[in-house]
């Protein structure tokens, strides 16, 4: 039985890497945000608006605990997931946690290219975005750094580089126990 949790700031490539890695390892892929939206029948921005960040984080924690009970999964977590409650410690107990690490500049480039509506970034110009990401990353890194495994994903701009990242992760992952 295997459980892998991908953490890191929004735009780090958790979903992209997660889909590719789960396919390679024969695990079921889950994106925590998509799971929450499916279970709550509302988008993440709607939940933020209706519940506030505190209310959203409680929902997120409950859904994390729900998915973390599934077997043979790879879960791509929201950027803030490890930073609230005891989420990072819980994930470390449940499986392998991998921090996808990169610079604020790379994150901003990815976020500008992405087509996802992100409530925390709404209305920010490039300079404000870089300042916001840099400050928030500083606050979140102590949580991210609690992951047992870290991989640099700064150069993941082609399918080949994504494949290389997946191979690197496969090399550093603990091998699952053999069935008895």
Quick tags:
single chain, 53% helix, 180 residues, 13% strand, alpha/beta
Walk me through the structure.
This protein has helices at residues 14-25, 32-40, 44-67, 87-94, 104-113, 126-144, 159-172, and strands at residues 3-7, 28-31, 73-76, 96-101, 149-152. It has 180 residues and is α/β, with parallel strands linked by helices. Helix 5 (104-113) packs across helix 6 (126-144). It is globular, with a radius of gyration of 16 Å.
What's the helical proportion of residues?
40-55%
Oligomeric status of the shown chains? single chain
The counted number of beta strands is 5
| Portion in beta strands | 5-15%
Secondary structural class: alpha/beta
What pattern of helices and strands is seen along the backbone? EHEHHEHEHHEH
**For the report, how would you describe the main beta sheet?**
5 strands, parallel
User: Strand order, biggest sheet?
Assistant: 2-3-1-4-5
Spans of at least 5 consecutive residues whose pLDDT stays below 50 are none
Termini Cα gap: 11 Å
In short:
This protein is of the alpha/beta class. It contains seven helices and five strands, in the order E-H-E-H-H-E-H-E-H-H-E-H.
Q: SSE layout and pairings?
A:
Layout: E1 3-7, H1 14-25, E2 28-31, H2 32-40, H3 44-67, E3 73-76, H4 87-94, E4 96-101, H5 104-113, H6 126-144, E5 149-152, H7 159-172
Helix pairs in contact: 1-7, 2-3, 5-6
